[in-house]
User: Fold these one by one.
Assistant:
Number 1:
Amino acid sequence: MGRFAPTSLDLDGKVILVTGGTGSFGRRFVETVLGGCQARKVIIYSRDELKQSEMQQDLAERFGPEKMGTLRFFLGDVRDRQRLILAMRGVDIVIHAAALKQVPAAEYNPSECIHTNVLGAENVVWACLTNRVQKVIALSTDKACNPINLYGATKLASDKTFVAANNLSGDIGTRFSVVRYGNVVGSRGSVAPLFQRLIAKGATELPITDIRMTRFWITLNEGVEFVLSSLGVMHGGEIFVPKIPSMKMTDLAAAMAPGLPIKVVGIRPGEKLHEIMISADDARGTVDLGDRYAIEPAFVEYPREPLTGGRLDEGFSYVSDTNADWLTGDALLAVLNEAVPQRRRRAVD
């Protein structure tokens, strides 16, 4: 068993659509579903035809013609509501993973980020309601809690959109929930691949923005596992937050390149020293479910039973630097080997 309790939802015979399906999460999610259940159809919805073609070839080599017969590759953008409505005909479950995620790019191109992350979220909601989709999980980020950059602000707006969508479903009965977790080890744009590239090029030092910096960390497999298990426990309107370890950036650098000096380059615009996933204000409406927290919806105008779990202490907050669970030493090396096995750390004399 992994970090999170397995899902109680049977995916056999279901039609599942993943927006942003050619991204790091989407690919691993599709691989996991193909390998672990008998879904009737899995639809990859994304806007990049090259990535779809490459993904199709890779999956064909791994899973063979029988499994490939359940896959559909649908070109489209979440900005296009009519295309989403067309793609979601007959769909039972939607996983919304499409987003613009690069903090500096969002700061420089705010309207593009808003169109994809906020208006795109609204389009997904309406397409799901139009097609009477049963369950929807939207992927969020720790940057959506007390955001200080545009990316985080757009994802907070997206989270609010999905949570509130439950009040719109009426007799349609669609249920929407959100999962919020931290940095994914080894995903595109994360710091581990950056360090690996620098090490491979013979760098004499690794850049660290601030030696105090901490982050929540989750592997790609754990992220997929968390989404699948949340599908099984959702009642609609929750923001699920996993209990995951924190990591110091200095420890990551030391694990990937023992003995290699670090260079402090300063915090970038829009970057936090520590990430937060549950604020003290959110905590008042949060329940502890054992392997995760669930921030319950504040406004409920639809049939919903509260989740059964313990309440958090007054003033509780879930922040990467005060987390009780840390990745260091052998545990950190094990996570790196699982997430990026091809990225070998270099011993430095």
Note: Residues 15-182+219-244+277-317 form a domain with the Rossmann fold fold (CATH 3.40.50.720).
Number 2:
Amino acid sequence: MSKRKDTFPKQVYDREKRKLDARKEGKKIWFGLGMFGVIGWSIALPTVAGGFLGIWIDSHWPSRYSWTLMFILGGLGFGCFTAWNWIQKERQELSGKEK
């Protein structure tokens, strides 16, 4: 009976530790999914805005060149650049918190 009394606190501690570790992992998963959303929007919004601006320019001032295509590509490049900078900033903040 005394052996069982000695192992019970350790079992409770181990279960509580596993539960807390699982909660931390769950938060990391949600943070990762949220990061995908932010990255997606930071790329999609400038691309779509560039497309609408290009369509408007093409309809008002016809040209030999497609402003729509140029602004879509410009918005895509700007969005990718913004997302990349945001990821780098988050990576630096996370690595600073872990130390």
Note: The chain has a mean pLDDT of 83.
